[in-house]
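User: Teach me something about this protein's shape.
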Amino acid sequence: MQTIFFVGCLLHDIMKMLNGPNWLKLGSKFQNLLSLHFSSVLLPTSIFVCVAFWLMYAYDREIVYPKIVDTYVPYWLNHGMHTVILPLILGELFTTRHKFPSILASLSLFMAFVICYGIVFLETYVEKGRWVYPLFGMHSVPVALGIMLALIVKQVIFLFVGIAIQNIYWGKEETKRYRKPAVKKSN
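Assistant: First, the predicted structure itself:
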């Protein structure tokens, strides 16, 4: 996901260099699409993946990344999937001012992503008879679904953390610009 986003950023920069800042108005539309994806999906999931994975790994690695996986997935790739994503996304957050959408739009896109991921996650369990992460296999299906729901709530919290970081670092001018001006009442 992050790789696709950063390739999109590279393409956007190339478009700006070759064709000016807003060639056929594609540049601004593409930038808005990148910002929407960044703020609604990438930022909260990157924070969540890095924090949740390493906390569970420190507690008991067998519940998220059993030792047997080391024979198939090199250690550096594990860090590429679970560590490097956070500094890259935070670097993007602090170097590029993104136009964050409304909370409702962010939550809608985020929930669409969560539903798609959940379908794939549950389909894997139904087809293979085992969970992607051993943590879920340690519990009954209703408890596993409860854990999944709790993790989704944590991701929503990280969505708001990302919005707060954006507003603290870049200020709130982006949202102020779209407010309707106050109308004075005449006597």
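Now, about its shape. The first helix runs from residue 2 to 19. The chain has one domain: 2-176. If you'd like, I can walk through any region in more detail.
User: That's plenty for now, thanks!
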